[in-house]
Amino acid sequence: MIKWKKKITEAHMKILIAYATKSGTAKEAAELLAADLQNHTVTVADLGKNDPVAGDFDYIVLGGPIRAGRAHKALRQYIKKQEKALCAVPHTLFLCCAYADLLMDYMEMTFPAAVRESADDMLYFGGVLDVSKQKGFEKWIARMMRNSIIEDEDGEQVLPCLMPEHIRVLADKLRLKKEN
Asked: 142 with 102, same domain?
């Protein structure tokens, strides 16, 4: 008697992880995600330096930081230029920001409705509030934000940080995702 074994294999996709960054948090998030997707061909692109064509990929992960309530200029420009292509390719959107409770508001301000509605996921990857990386007015704002952060039960400030566990959840989904 012949026994057939069904072999379960992970799908191989061309994935674009496109981000904009100012202080490096979105870049760090993109690199963490890429490191977890070794079974796929992954292109990590800084939108401030590169302009990848969305239609060249099987899946896109797109995002960046929110500063003073706005997305990075390079991210906004890329979305405007690639909106139709983004809607045609499966994608996940992410933002790095200090306030997780404002994520959906920031998503609505950053991404057009068509891009949001066609997204597989809209995720919060955390944010880093590092005053030493700021200059001028932004440094003053960052200090004010830091001082307004609620203290935990031990009386210590709980500053925002990158959320690797959120990045790993997306990596797990993409590792098993099949091409369309």
From this structure: no
Structure-token pair, residue 31: 């690199």
Are residues 117 and 30 located together in one domain of the fold?
A: yes
57-113 residue pLDDT tens: 999 999 999 877 789 999 999 999 999 999 999 999 999 987 788 899 999 999 999
Q: What is the DSSP letter of 155?
A: S
Domain that holds residue 34: 14-127+162-176
Which residues, 6+ apart, have CB-to-CB distance to 141 below 8 Å?
68, 134
- Does pTM surpass 0.85? no
- Quote the number of domains for the chain: 2
CA 135 from centre of chain: 24
Strand partners, 18: 45, 62
